[in-house]
Prior knowledge:
- The protein is α/β, with parallel strands linked by helices and 185 residues long.
- The protein folds into two domains: 8-139, Rossmann fold (3-Layer(aba) Sandwich); 154-185.
- It has six helices and five strands, in the order βαββαβααβαα.
- The chain has helices at residues 20-29, 63-72, 83-88, 102-111, 129-139, 158-183; strands spanning 8-14, 40-42, 51-55, 78-82, 118-122.
- Strands 2-1-3-4-5 form a five-stranded parallel sheet.
- The protein is elongated and about 70 Å long.
Amino acid sequence: xxxxxxxxxxxxxxxxxxxxxxxxxxxxxxxxxxxxxxxxxxxxxxxxxxxxxxxxxxxxxxxxxxxxxxxxxxxxxxxxxxxxxxxxxxxxxxxxxxxxxxxxxxxxxxxxxxxxxxxxxxxxxxxxxxxxxxxxxxxxxxxxxxxxxxxxxxxxxxxxxxxxxxxxxxxxxxxxxxxxxxxxx
Length: 185
């Protein structure tokens, strides 16, 4: 995920949340956190932005606006999903009025054949400004992610299978005894 080698410009897009994350985003610009010292600047137009900062669960009524905004951001695009609502829909994940956050937006983009931008998730309700700064720094390749995932699929040995079978049988016996005890038998 390479945004740019210069300062990153961010366009903030509220997609129908409760505004708690938006207040914390504004706190990023205040003297206490002052993200401009890292070269992160809030811009008024998505045409000037490198990163789209999304808050809220993406309301159905603003979905077309979100698509138009995403199209206006020049390539390479990055979305930073701020808050639980943007990361997965939050408390409105299954509401009729929302599409369910950035993951659902990416699914819709894939269905429509639109290239998916890279995404950085910053969970929390609302996330702390420090977490948002970290997410923006990851998006700008200023720092690396804290976690790396490596999936290894290994077949258990015959010895391990035998041990698992013994443990399974013992657990079933204990469950049966506990069930009898609870029934009063």
